[in-house]
Amino acid sequence: MIDHVRGSVASVGLDYAVIDVGGFGMRLEASPGTLASLRVGEDVTLVTEFLVRQDAMTLYGFLDTDERTCFRALQTVTGVGARTALAVLAVHTPDELRRAIASEDLAALQKVPGIGKKSASRMALELKDKLGAPVSDIPAAPLAADVDAAVVDALIGLGWQSKVAESAVGDVMAPGMTTSQILRAALQHLGGKA
């Protein structure tokens, strides 16, 4: 129903944030990782999940759709509700959760308060085919992303030939690198000073 919320951060509590959206203060429950990234007064966009129960209507906020996808998948596990799903995301990033599920690492899943051996086993069994592989384990496409092109353009602007710039970016690229990290690594690779 509500896919995302964009506005200014009005306040941040222990387990929630209030986002000022067009004069309305929207309270969003969120994980500690999401809350730690918010600063009062800054503009933010959070993807959301709106849950309606008999006794409450609650809006949950996430930094990205990957975290929301994991939140939704966790709630499909028998006995896991929204609070427990949020607790899991407080302990594990989406990729850490995928690795724990894929390797059936029950000890990692039991680090979440309220998750015992039986619940961890159920999570590993019921989520095995729902979450997929960790995103950081998926190889990056060579020079297809805008980030790659931007770095190549920057290197060309600094005087390197197009083929040399493309080769350098291809040599240093690794999954999860930011544009500035790729540029710095490419410059070092080419013998420049970052």
TrEMBL record:
Pfam families: HHH_5 (PF14520), RuvA_C (PF07499), RuvA_N (PF01330). GO terms for cellular component: cytoplasm; Holliday junction helicase complex; Holliday junction resolvase complex. Gene3D superfamilies: 5' to 3' exonuclease, C-terminal subdomain, DNA helicase RuvA subunit, C-terminal domain, Nucleic acid-binding proteins. Residues 145-194 are annotated as: Domain III. It is found in: Cytoplasm. Keywords: ATP-binding, Cytoplasm, DNA damage, DNA recombination, DNA repair, DNA-binding, Helicase, Hydrolase, Nucleotide-binding. InterPro entries: DNA_helicase_Holl-junc_RuvA_I, Hlx-hairpin-Hlx_DNA-bd_motif, NA-bd_OB-fold, RuvA, RuvA_2-like, RuvA_C, RuvA_C_sf. One of its GO terms (biological process) is DNA repair. Belongs to the RuvA family. HAMAP family: DNA_HJ_migration_RuvA (MF_00031). The RuvA-RuvB-RuvC complex processes Holliday junction (HJ) DNA during genetic recombination and DNA repair, while the RuvA-RuvB complex plays an important role in the rescue of blocked DNA replication forks via replication fork reversal (RFR). RuvA specifically binds to HJ cruciform DNA, conferring on it an open structure. The RuvB hexamer acts as an ATP-dependent pump, pulling dsDNA into and through the RuvAB complex. HJ branch migration allows RuvC to scan DNA until it finds its consensus sequence, where it cleaves and resolves the cruciform DNA. This is Holliday junction branch migration complex subunit RuvA. It comes from Bowdeniella nasicola. The gene is ruvA.
